[in-house]
Amino acid sequence: MNEGDSESAGRPVAAWPRQLRSARQTRRRARLLRKAARETMPWWRRMFPTWRMVLSSLLTVVLLAVAAFFALYVIVQVPDPNAAAVSQSNVYYYADGTELGRTGAVNRESLPLSEISVSMQHAVVAAEDGTFYSNQGVDARGILRAAWSTVTGRGLQGGSTITQQYVRNYYLTREQTLDRKVREAIIAIKVKETQSKDSVMAGYLNTSYFGRNAYGIRAAAQAYYGIRASQLSVSQSAYLAALLKAPSSYDVSTATPALRAAAVARWNYVLDGMVDLGYLDKHRRAGMAFPAPRAPRPTPGIGGQAGYLIDIARRYLVDNNVLDEATLGSGGWQITTTFVKKDQQALVAAVKSGLRELPGTREARSIRVGAASVDPSTGRIVAAYGGPDYAVRPYNDAVRHDLQVGSTFKPFDLAAALHNHATTQDGRAITPGTRYDGTSRHCVQGLPRGLHYCPPNEDDRDYGRISLRTAMMKSVNAVYAQEGADAGLARVRKAAVAAGLPADTPDMGATPALTLGVATPSPPPS
Questions:
Q1: How far is Cα 471 from Cα 477, in angstroms, rounded to an integer?
Q2: Is the dihedral of CA 249, 254, 258, 264 positive or negative?
């Protein structure tokens, strides 16, 4: 041994067992003495545990809790997003970016955080979780409070952080159980470790429900203020953040006076929180007035003419292999069409005006109208009329392939003659003033050998000799059957194709019947 070793280190090794036995005996005697002293106490005193027992029990509970937490942390994994959280609308737009309508069960369109106003981000922090940017994803006191409320039968209470609420919205469900609350907390911790605060904030704002069938901040900004999420002001953001507490109850447009007062109070609470957190100047806050939202409106869907236009766009995407049905049905697509809103309104007005001018007979009221307006320089469809209301009559007459174009084809007959400087059978130049025989069932002259065509006029009416202009206004079949033959059937077909009708349109061969519109064109989606 070295000189620096302790004196005890130099004792014989054989002495150690005796020392150990002596220490154990001393502790045993102490326990026996404490037990004997406790037995001398009155019975009621012995009912209370000693401080050693209390400390030992608490330490055991803490150790078990820590062990259970680590076991759960290993077992509980971050699940895949639930179906409802990732469901989005397909949003269709007019050519100028104005919303046309949307399809899908969930009115949601997710946005990156860069397209959500900073004031909205600050407002939800003030409303829901003031320590969001500094906490670890959970609030221990909030979890204990919620657990105690569940155990005592009062249901789950507040206290969840924004991260926990995001986890509940995106990964879990809203079932009211302690098990879900525990899993929510553990997943929130893991999410905090793997996702940035900005990512969590974007996810939270895109999955939260704001009332008015608006899921996510994009739909909420549109539903309450008719603007983009990036345009939300501080006061508007504070109101939308206030809605998160009670989305339907706090809608001031439909709330009772008491609930309206509660909503305004919550709005004030959010603004005060923004001041406390340094997001808002107190002097600016003092001058703010409550931002009344617009009245509730139906979610833009597929009713009216919108459904027909969306149907045309959908057909184009699928038929041209841009998207398949399953991919399109998964939602989340933003689709800009070639439809021009003012042209669409003009076409609908024209159809309705024409229908009003028809006789009020049952046959007239049952007429089905399909129409389309095409930009001849590009071939793009700028407007279409598929029926009176897609929600009532979802069959789209604008794209039917089984209806003859009829008398609307007659302008092509005249255009072919004028463009090619054609003449009549007796050598007269064809102009709008040229006169023809309008007798019903008058047989067409000048057709190739073996062809005979003697079409009747409507109601088999005879008109005598009339000008092409008058025959166009009265839609006289006998006149335009002859005029089309004079212009040349091949030229008539060429004029129709030049105007935009597809060359492969069914029944558009160079035959005598072509002149009266036996072809069945429909506007190809574009």
A1: 8
A2: positive
- Dihedral of alpha carbons 302, 303, 306, 311, sign: positive
202-247 pLDDT, tens digit each = 999 998 889 888 889 999 999 999 999 999 999 999 999 999 988 8
pLDDT in tens, 298-351: 766 778 899 999 989 988 898 888 887 767 876 788 899 999 999 999 999 999
Q: Which entry of 109, 128, 184, 483 is annotated as an active-site residue?
A: 128
What is this structure's pTM?
0.56
Question: What residues contact residue 432 under an 8 Å CB cut-off, 6+ apart?
Answer: 414, 467, 468, 469, 472
Token pair listed for 159: 């206290």
Give pLDDT, residue 430: 95
Known catalytic residue at 128: yes
User: How many alpha carbons fall within 13 Å on the CB side of residue 345?
Assistant: 4
Residue entry with tokens 């209470």: 157
CA 307 to chain centre: 15
Residue 258 has a CB neighbour count (10 Å cut-off) of 9
Q: Which residues contact 399 (CB under 8 A, 6 or more apart)?
A: 311, 312, 315, 370, 384, 386, 522, 523, 525
Residue 160 Ramachandran class (φ > 0 left, ψ -120 to 50 alpha, else beta): beta
Catalytic residue among 149, 407, 440, 475: 407
**Residue 354: closest CA among 385, 398, 375, 395:** 385
Collapsed DSSP state (helix, strand, coil) of residue 374: strand
| Amino acid (1-letter code) at residue 403 | L
Question: What pLDDT, in 10s, does the model give residues 32-71?
Answer: 776 676 667 676 666 666 666 667 777 777 666 666 656 5
The per-residue pLDDT for range 384-438, each reduced to its tens digit, is 999 888 877 877 888 877 778 888 899 999 999 999 999 999 999 999 999 999 9
How far is 267 from 123, CA to CA, in rounded Å?
Answer: 10
Q: Please check whether residue 104 is in contact with residue 331, taking contact to mean a CB–CB distance below 8 angstroms.
A: yes
Residue type, 131: T
Rg (CA), the chain: 40
Classify strands 90-93 and 334-336 as parallel, antiparallel or unpaired. Answer: parallel
Question: CA angle at residue 175 from 106 to 68, to 5 degrees?
Answer: 130
